[in-house]
Amino acid sequence: MQFDLTFANYSARGVQCRYINKETQTRITGYSKSMDIYSPHFDGLPLLDMKFLGPDRKAYGVIQRKGLLWMTENFAGRPGRVYQDGSMYGRYYSWEQVKSACPKGWRLPTEEELIEFAQEYGPGGTMGTEMRYGENVAAAFLSGGESGLDLETGGTYEYGEFDFVGDVGAYWVANEKVLHVWDDFLKISTLEYPGCYNARYVFDLK
Questions:
Q1: How many CA atoms lie within 13 A of 189 on its CB side?
Q2: Beta-bridge partner residues of 81
Q3: Are strands 202-204 and 47-53 parallel, antiparallel or unpaired?
Q4: Which pLDDT belongs to residue 111?
Q5: What are phi and psi of 44, to 5 degrees?
Q6: What are phi and psi of 166, to 5 degrees?
Q7: How confident is the model at residue 125 (pLDDT cuts 50, 70, 90)?
Q8: Domain boundaries of the chain, sorted by first residue
Q9: Residue, of 18 and 110, whose pLDDT is higher
């Protein structure tokens, strides 16, 4: 079924919403066809989840939070490097690649947006030029955590090889910064040396 979908009075191209009818328990799924801001078709039905259909024809999970859609899966569109068969962690991008791979209308999250998100789960502090958070925030951001972002520990691609796979997640942030997340802490820092990292884009609903 094809139709225009609205969440918080906005719709986004290629975003799939799934609703459930309370009375019949029937699931209704569809993709928005345009950027038009209208669609009362399924008003009042609770939203189960949303998917973004990327330019690579892969459907990516998204969550809505304070006027933004956040991807909940690592982006895998070209260009970029892949780890082994490429099925686990999406692609790893250089700074130039992560900008060119970004789907139209989407962007990288800012440090300020991530800080605001992180502060819902615990306090943070600065260490030099880094913003750091403890175990509670890291657990909330990692796969299965309370935030719903489900960040993966895909490691990094630096100095010509993959490293720290399964131990740390590394994600591009706007203004050439990188978010690193381990089991016990999370940090946002300026780029220390050229590398390739995963990407999660956001979409403005404002």
A1: 15
A2: 92
A3: unpaired
A4: 95
A5: 90, -10
A6: 90, -10
A7: confident
A8: 1-53, 76-204
A9: 110
